[in-house]
Design a protein that fits this description.
The protein is α+β, with helices and mostly antiparallel strands and 112 residues long. Helix content is 37%, strand content 28%.
């Protein structure tokens, strides 16, 4: 957990949590609950395997360097390496530079 916290990523506004897995998808470090850690590690491992298989069928042999997924609820950033995979999960509704007050003001202005 110390290594994850030392990155400083967890302290950014809107970051829900960080998970580090080995290449097989086994969690090594996490700032999330055990249930969330296992869920994100499993889903990410499956996604990377599927993407690599599809890319190989298209004869694109370049390794995946970064994946960014965004839904209405979360944004998931995946950075695979030779030995590890870094998974960062953030809340989509809060932009990186916003505070809670900024968010409320923005949402009120968008309704007009």
């Amino acid at each position: 957990r110390r290594c994850v916290q030392e990155t400083g990523i967890k302290t950014h506004k809107g970051v829900k949590g960080i998970v580090i897995t080995d290449k097989e998808g086994f969690p090594i470090r996490s700032t999330m609950s055990q249930e969330e850690t296992i869920e994100y590690a499993g889903l990410t491992t499956q996604l990377l395997e599927d993407m690599e298989r599809e890319l190989a069928q298209c004869e694109l042999r370049e390794p995946i360097q970064f994946v960014r997924l965004r839904s209405k609820k979360n944004e998931i950033m995946i950075a695979p390496d030779q030995q590890y995979v870094l998974i960062a999960v953030s809340y989509t509704h809060l932009r990186a530079h916003e505070t809670s007050l900024h968010l409320v003001c923005r949402l009120l202005l968008e309704k007009k």
